[in-house]
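Chapter review: from sequence to fold.
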Amino acid sequence: MWSEEADEGHAEGVIDSAYDPYSYAYPAPEYELHTGDPRQDLEYERQYQQSYIVPELIKNFLVHFQKCINDCNLYEIQNAYESGFNKLTDRFFKNSPWPEAEHIVPIVNNDPVFLILYKELYYRHIYARVTSGPTLEQRFESYYNYCNLFNFILNAEGPVHIELPNQWLWDIIDEFIYQFQSFSIYRCKLNKKPDEEIDCLRTNPKIWNVHSVLNVLHSLVEKSNINRQLEVYISGGDAESVAGEFGQHSLYKMLGYFSLIGLLRLHSLLGDYYQALKVLENIDFNKKNLYSRVPACQITTFYYVGFAYMMMRRYQDAIRTFSNILLYIQRTKSMFQNRASLYDQISKQNEKMYTLLAICLVLHPMRIDESVHSQLREKFADKMLRLQKGDMAEFEQSFSFACPKFLSPVPPNYDGGGSNYHKEPFQLQLTVFQEEVRQQILVPTIRSYLKLYTTLPISKLAVFMDMSEDQLRTHLMCFKHKMKNLVWTKGTSGLEGEFQSASEVDFYIDREMIHVADTKVARRYGDFFIRQIHKFEEISRTLKPTQQP
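The token string follows.
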């Protein structure tokens, strides 16, 4: 699977088969149980602390959950995963862990597959809800559990007999990368760490190693043959014909697809934006695809694609990407209101993407969807005004808020004594972004002057800009250069495109005179009304004729 032999270009094997990750004896956590009846709450707490007795309600749920998984009852699995588990979490384990796996072993008859899946939920809940966060041991334990899960899926001689809903499969990949990201940042915060913990990190370099994470994702992609399936699907063929034994199975196909999105995210976190878009070259974003089945996956995909475009100075593609997904969120937000955690996550992503869209529109003005534009004016008018004035502090603050949490692929220097290693990747990306902004900080001002004239002497504009003519010529060349972007026009690869100038003003210099041309295209209202008339006629044809009395 993802051992040294399986991937020579990656790290050594990530799990020692002789290592028992559950041999440690950790103190039992204290559970805060909330049933609405204080006496019952105290009784449950007493039972946990004295006898590790799992409440009957939890027992029944786990038995039912296990049966659904063993029976491959996808509808019931999804109901238990998205509804039952979350309701019991809010009732019994809002800020404390679920029972440790060893306490539920008798309840589920030591079912190894169910225990692996239970631990995946158990550790994910600790990362998300437990106030103190995961300990170093729990970070290690979660990593080894992911090892067991992916080894089980990838090392099987044939497709494993298990079905999981798409949402859970996406959450597995998403959480796997999140925990790697969390560990990488945690590992770099050396300040206030005891010497024993630093020694433990130093002596376990393979735990949450970047090569191991990449190896898992690439192994899932290869096992599912998802890239070949996408190629055939895009060309209009039958993807099943090239899927292979594993790729025909929904579990492998969706894990393979979600791993592509995971690779997009991981490469973006590492600052490799070219490779981030390269892994998605077989996905056509202009058509409905597999990612649209899971809204969180779709939003994550467009966020990282848009951010990669922005950092590659492909502002027109970034604006198109952000506008499309923000419009999608506007139209579907009501679907998520009953799921608090997902709604909060999507709302935060929504704010981040509006901020990135504001940055891109300041650096590269262009027309966007009216409903998205109205939201932008309503919520970000002051921010955009400061950005347009060239306020570098506002650019830095906006970038800091909206960018991903960048990480370093290598461990820190444990002997260096520094405490800010975790900030270095962010500072590097921020420096690159700031340099790009500084290069074109005067472009909006130059544009505003050029809009007022059809011809303008260079000397006169130089006086307006309070600079020498030579300096002005440099900034005019910068204007020309920055307004010409590589823009996607066709094909599936997001890296493809043609150079286009989308500036609403263009100019050329003849001797000492600037000649300005307005390239702004007037709205084609006729085409808009014709399209709406056709839509109305189509709707009318589909409606059933009313019965006459």
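Two observations follow directly from the output. The two ends are 70 Å apart (CA to CA). Confidence is low (pLDDT under 50) at residues 1-34, 45-51.
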